[in-house]
Amino acid sequence: MEELNRTLFLWINATPDSAAWLLELATFIAKDLIAIVPLLIAALWLWGPHSGVRALVLKTGIALLCAMAISWGVGLVFPHPRPFAMGLGHQFLSHEPNESYPSNHGTAIFTFALAFIFWHRLWSGVLLLAIGTAIAWSRVYLGVHWPMDMLGGLLVGILGCLFSQMAWPWYGEPLMKLLHQIYRLLFSLLIRKGWVRN
């Protein structure tokens, strides 16, 4: 498996001869495209078309928290150095030489995409999955992750969504009520003005 990981990495990883425009595009995707996760969560909560969307936001948020906790734990139990820390390939994105498996970026975007596939609409989840695939490619292309780091993020995302779904009957209603109370307290002025949804 390790040999396959290295072979795939060297096949995807950019080289000094790679096109400058492609390196710039990959850098934008690797660093900035992940912002879609918090922006979409905030937008759906504040302006979502119906109350069921907030249940999606909460379930997705719990899945993300669980997935990131699992990712942290796996990184501690199965530490794996990044490619550049092993002197393999070419690095085009500045990054600390910390443990790489599973990818936090991959975990976040794949959990988000899977949540939308499971709990929203197939088309929205598939679109987010395509964005996740682009992020995964860019971070391998720029030399800061292994392909298996991204596969690990996908698998951890599945576990996060599974936990959130199974625990929903216990935490869903009480946590939703609490969040609504906090939200209405903090955003009361904006709600009264009609700038955000009640």
TrEMBL record:
GO MF annotation terms: undecaprenyl-diphosphatase activity
InterPro entries: PAP2/HPO, PAP2/HPO_sf, UPP_Pase
Location of the Phosphatidic acid phosphatase type 2/haloperoxidase domain: 57-165
Bilayer-crossing regions: 20-48, 60-81, 126-144, 150-171
EC number: 3.6.1.27
Pfam families assigned to the protein according to its UniProt record, in alphabetical order: PAP2 (PF01569)
Domain of life assignment: Bacteria
Enzyme class of the recorded protein, top EC level: hydrolase
Entry annotated with the keyword Cytoplasm: no
Keywords: Hydrolase, Membrane, Transmembrane, Transmembrane helix
Gene3D superfamilies per the UniProt record, alphabetical: Phosphatidic acid phosphatase type 2/haloperoxidase
Reactions accelerated catalytically: di-trans,octa-cis-undecaprenyl diphosphate + H2O = di-trans,octa-cis-undecaprenyl phosphate + phosphate + H(+)
NCBIfam families: PRK11837.1
Protein name, UniProt field: undecaprenyl-diphosphate phosphatase
Species whose genome carries this gene: Mixta hanseatica
Lineage: Bacteria, Pseudomonadati, Pseudomonadota, Gammaproteobacteria, Enterobacterales
